[in-house]
Amino acid sequence: MEDLLAAREILRSSLEKSRDVASAINKVSPTLEEMNRRLTSLEAAIKCMAGKCALYGIREHVARVLGPAAAVLKVFDAVNELEDCLSANDPCSDLPGYLSTVKQLEEALKFLTDNCKLLILWLEDAVGFLEDNNAVSDDWYLMNVKKSLKILEELQAKEERSRLNGGLLHSAFHKLEEEFRRLLKDSTFPVSVDSSLSSLREQDCIVPLPVIQKLQCIMEILSANNMLEKCIYIYVDVRSSNARTVLRALDLDYLETTSLSEFDSVQSVENHIHQWGIDLEFAVKHLLELECTLCNDVFQNVELNVRTDCFAKIAARAGISDFIKFGNAITEGKKDAVKLLKLLDIFSALNNLRLDFNRLFGGKACAEIQSQTRDLVKKVVNGVSEIFWDLSVQVELQRQSSPPNDGSVPRLVNFVTNYCNQLLDDSYKPVLTQVLEIDWNWRREKFEEGLLPNEISNIMKALELNLETWAKTYKDAALSYLFLMNNHWYLCSTLQGTKVGDLMGDSWLRQHEEYTQYYATAYFRESWGKLPALLSDQEDFTATDLVRKRIKTFSEAFEGTYRRQLNWVVFDKELRWKMCQQLVQVLVPIYRNYVNSYYMPSVEEVASPSKSVKYTAERLENMLSSLFEKPKLGKYDNANCTTTHLIGKIKNGVMSHFSSTPATA
């Protein structure tokens, strides 16, 4: 019961509280209705304020656009003015002004493009903001903004369109290219075909400094627009054409030769190689040197590899490779002694230009020229070495040939002595030594200075053996002696005071002089020594028939000897004259004395002189004086060895032999 009573009290208390709450709610209900009404009005006000806040949010975008927009308008006006000015002007009449206008137009177009980019970016942001926030109920405003964006995009593309084919900048760049070409051509002085080498060397082929400065200004603008290659192309085209024109004036048709067989003669080869050296020196030291200098001056503001590449193209188009090909043509074919001197001439020309080649063609751009030159030098060095060390063998091989039928000096002897003197001459010896040393170094062998003179000495010794071998082939001993006398005297007289003579030494020269005397005496003894004995002075004065018989025998022996030797030759004019005089002095007096002393012509012979003795003393003298003529090797009158000195020795030997000849029948 107690629990129930307690629960009843609790319920009564709760009901009383509920009545109090309900009474309070009834009192608040009008207030809540008033608040609900006010919230509705507030919602409408807040929505209105939200729209105004959206418009306020793009205020910053609008403020940022106003400045660039005004700048775009001003730049656009400036661009129009510059375009009109550029269209009205020409670089040929006012290059500085034209270049200035081009630069200003480029800058204006770039400024226009940059500002248009900013405007487009900011307007695109504003349009996006308005569209996202529905801040503008009227689409007309958005359409105008979007139309402005399209106009700005077109203005932004104006610079790009100007650079396209047909655009104003593109046309201006093309005019500058043509002006670049015109300046080069007008500043290049053409050379006439009949110009001499000296006039070519004096020709001013360098472009004047003011023109170079103009070229650099043009190139600066074109290079900034990625058109440097076009400048290089124009420059190479104009300057290489000028270089070819200069070289054509030198008459270089001979460079088209592909082998030695195309030359008419050895002399023509020598002339062309000599001219080749002169022309190559001019092409390298003068023409290409000037072109290299000009390349460095014009392209001094660009990278070095651009300059070297430009010069390499000019050198190649000018025809430097044609000179190298000509040298290669000389190295081809048969390797004979004559070619050795020509190869030395080529090496000398190349060696004299070695520093110039290294300086002008040392870059990577000239790798092809370097390779061609190295190959030519290698061929020349190998050819010289091969020919030189084979010379003595070639002389030995000539022993199988026949000596001259007239007992004169063989062409080989003349050639070898002159040839060896040339090799030892100051103009060839240093070059030959250098080439041989290079060849030995390539083979990793040590070259000694004595190798060259030793080989020349071996060649001369081989030539001496040839003479001995040839002399043994003559069936007539007298002709063999005359041949040896001729050749020993030739070696003695022509080599004394020469490089070969100095190399072989005085004892060697004296030995040949002694051989000359010996074989001259042997010749007189073998051919004419028996004739005086046919006219013995121990005759019976009354033995007329015997006298006639001896005169006839003498005449027949003389005639036979004379006819056999009629075509024999003594090469030295003075030596020939002296030998003839010796024969006259020995034979004619004996013959004259014998005839005058013992011969008594008969009545029939007095009446008919034709039946008298066949030869008078005067005729005999004339015949002897006409011997040994027809020299076939040219003049040797300038022999250094004294002919008179030798003749004295020959005379003593001859007279001694004749005086000791027994007077037998």
Automatic annotation (TrEMBL):
GO terms for cellular component: exocyst. Keywords: Exocytosis, Protein transport, Transport. GO terms for biological process: exocytosis; protein transport. The keyword Nucleotide-binding does not apply. It comes from the Eukaryota. InterPro entries: Cullin_repeat-like_dom_sf, Exo70, Exo70_C. SUPFAM superfamilies: Cullin repeat-like (SSF74788). Component of the exocyst complex. PANTHER family: EXOCYST COMPLEX PROTEIN EXO70, EXOCYST SUBUNIT EXO70 FAMILY PROTEIN. This is Exocyst subunit Exo70 family protein. It comes from Escallonia herrerae.
